[in-house]
Design goal:
By secondary structure, the protein is mostly helical. Helix content is about 65%, strand content about 0%. The protein is built from 10 helices and 2 strands.
């Protein structure tokens, strides 16, 4: 059961809608929705829509990316991504290691594991248990929906990695990690130093 072409183009429109929502003020959310819909309309001078052009340029987003984009559009971005830097930094570091290896930078190609993901799924079981024990339900939901989408073949790709991660997500996480780390560091510097009055004379 594969998402038809219009569904995959709608995924590109969602990405553009999220980008527009970051650039425009909240009072112009109606314009954001209009621009997202316009991205699906074929442009006469291009012969294709903006969504089609972007899909040809950077491919289909992962299911993880789509989930985070939908949460962002709904103004419910995960705190770990909206304010924290560790979660996006971990994803960015993984992507910066994964994609060079997948492109042949080393003898081991991790991308091949995604075609027969039994070992990969077994490896994810331990982190999933840790997330459950720590009450990190967001990550469990993201992973569960990724697994559901893979089981039903909602993307054209038959590789499990393409459901989990994509280059756009890695680039976005690099930007988020840098932005949030800088913001958190500045906030800590602005906090006044509180001295303990006990023992002061």
């Amino acid at each position: 059961m594969m998402l038809h072409a219009q569904g995959l183009l709608f995924a590109q429109a969602l990405l553009l809608t999220w980008l527009f929502s970051r650039l425009l003020p909240r009072r112009l959310l109606w314009l954001v929705a209009v621009l997202g819909l316009v991205a699906l309309v074929p442009l006469p001078w291009l012969g294709l829509s903006l969504a089609q052009a972007l899909r040809a340029f950077w491919g289909d987003p992962s299911i993880t990316t789509l989930q985070l984009v939908i949460l962002g559009i709904a103004a419910r971005p995960p705190v770990a991504f909206a304010r924290g830097w560790r979660a996006p930094a971990m994803i960015a570091a993984f992507g910066l290691l994964f994609y060079p290896l997948a492109l042949g930078a080393g003898d081991f190609d991790p991308y091949r594991l995604g075609f027969q993901p039994a070992l990969l799924l077994a490896a994810l079981a331990a982190p999933a248990l840790v997330l459950w024990w720590r009450g990190q339900t967001l990550w469990l939901w993201l992973l569960a929906i990724d697994l559901f989408a893979f089981a039903f073949g909602l993307l054209e790709s038959t590789n499990f990695w393409d459901y989990l991660i994509d280059p756009l997500l890695v680039i976005a996480c690099i930007s988020l990690a840098a932005r949030n780390y800088t913001a958190n560091r500045r906030q800590r510097k602005r906090q006044p130093i509180i001295t303990d009055p006990v023992g002061q004379k």
